[in-house]
């Protein structure tokens, strides 16, 4: 987290102990902090404050949008479209809607060139399509998806458009009304805020709450608010947006420097079309990525293989499987390197040094 975020969260923990639902002065002070945080985030997205609902993160925001809207509008349609490269909080949620409630789900796979286009969505659109869900940028490859084109495509269709903007929030402008999104999800920790907090933008559509109880969040999400995290998230997003252009250029420089420094190594990129510079997915032929991750971890370098560890078994990346096929040897060769503006050229040099050692 940014030092300023840690500071404001610590101050809030020390000074704000009232329940924001209480009407005494301590409660009103807490409620004011929440209103200020909501106003700050709404301003960042150029939307109304009542269109922001706070959540525990993007996974809850994705679930709320998909399950909440699908169950509230079953009479309007039974078909959901998403892509094969979505985050598990989308993929597993639409599978849940299919298995438990009988929704018909279409999962779009990339073209041969690895791209997911608006045309692929258009081909699958039906009169009973209720929701189209698409990430803004992929968390494993950085690939940018055509959200604005899909938003335009859906402008004259009854389906709502859900965009998982977790990977881009605070890094590039995210304006829901400009991209035609009815729902936008985000997580605080992706822009140097606290973990375990996020938000859902929603247009003026109705959806069922996932969490029932009190009347918090205008009855959209019950439960006493996580005040210090909301304050921290709002400040982190404001700082990220204020420095957005400078930060983006710095990260682009780090990515370019990385590829300059690994010239001569035997590698290939898992990069498909326009991408965010914050995520680099590269692979080394015939080098097991789990072994490479372990060696780099021992050297103090944190990377990912894009795998998810579930019940003690390591699953290949479903994202790369959608590009190469589930039996491809390439699923055991890739590593994912993530940058932010807090990284330096020296960090990249140290990574490359340790990478070369690990490869030999």
From TrEMBL:
Question: Residues in domain Aminotransferase class V?
Answer: 3-351
The organism's place on the tree of life at top rank: Bacteria
Tell me which cofactor or cofactors this protein depends on. Answer: pyridoxal 5'-phosphate
- Which reaction is this enzyme known to catalyze? (sulfur carrier)-H + L-cysteine = (sulfur carrier)-SH + L-alanine
Q: Name one GO molecular function term.
A: iron-sulfur cluster binding
The reply on keyword Cytoplasm is no
One Pfam family cited in the UniProt record for this chain? Aminotran_5
**The keyword Hydrolase is annotated on this UniProt entry:** no
Q: Which UniProt keywords apply?
A: Aminotransferase, Iron, Iron-sulfur, Metal-binding, Pyridoxal phosphate, Transferase
Record family assignment: Belongs to the class-V pyridoxal-phosphate-dependent aminotransferase family. NifS/IscS subfamily.
Protein name as it appears in the record:
Pyridoxal-phosphate dependent aminotransferase
Q: Which organism is it from?
A: Lactococcus fujiensis JCM 16395
């Amino acid at each position: 987290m940014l030092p300023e975020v840690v500071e404001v969260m610590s101050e809030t923990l020390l000074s704000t102990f009232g329940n924001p639902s209480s009407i005494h002065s301590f409660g009103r002070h807490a409620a004011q902090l929440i209103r200020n945080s909501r106003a700050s985030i709404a301003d960042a997205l150029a939307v109304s404050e009542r269109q922001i609902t706070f959540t525990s993160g993007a996974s809850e925001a994705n679930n709320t949008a998909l399950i909440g809207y699908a169950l509230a509008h079953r009479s309007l349609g039974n078909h959901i479209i998403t892509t094969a490269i979505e985050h598990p909080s989308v993929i597993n949620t639409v599978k849940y809607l299919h298995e438990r409630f009988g929704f018909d789900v279409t999962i779009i796979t990339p073209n041969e060139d690895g791209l997911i286009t608006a045309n692929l969505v258009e081909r699958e659109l039906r009169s009973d399509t209720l929701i189209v869900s698409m990430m803004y940028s992929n968390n494993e490859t950085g690939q940018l998806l055509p959200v604005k084109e899909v938003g335009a495509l859906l402008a004259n269709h009854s389906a709502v458009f859900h965009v998982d903007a977790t990977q881009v929030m605070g890094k590039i402008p995210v304006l829901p009304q400009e991209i035609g999104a009815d729902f936008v999800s985000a997580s605080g920790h992706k822009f140097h805020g606290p973990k375990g907090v996020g938000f859902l933008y929603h247009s003026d559509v109705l959806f069922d709450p996932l969490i029932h109880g009190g009347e918090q969040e205008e009855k959209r999400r019950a439960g006493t608010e996580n005040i210090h995290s909301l304050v921290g998230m709002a400040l982190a997003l404001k700082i990220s947006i204020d420095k957005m252009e400078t930060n983006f250029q710095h990260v682009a420089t780090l990515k370019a420097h990385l590829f300059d420094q690994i010239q001569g190594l035997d590698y290939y990129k898992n990069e498909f079309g326009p991408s965010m510079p914050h995520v680099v997915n590269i692979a080394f032929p015939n080098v097991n990525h789990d072994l490479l991750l372990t060696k780099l971890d021992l050297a103090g370098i944190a990377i990912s293989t894009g795998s998810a560890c579930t019940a003690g078994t390591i699953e290949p990346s479903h994202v790369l499987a959608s590009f190469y096929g589930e039996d491809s040897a390439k699923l055991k060769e890739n590593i994912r390197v993530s940058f932010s503006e807090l990284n330096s050229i020296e960090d990249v040099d140290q990574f490359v040094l340790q990478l070369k050692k690990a490869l030999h």
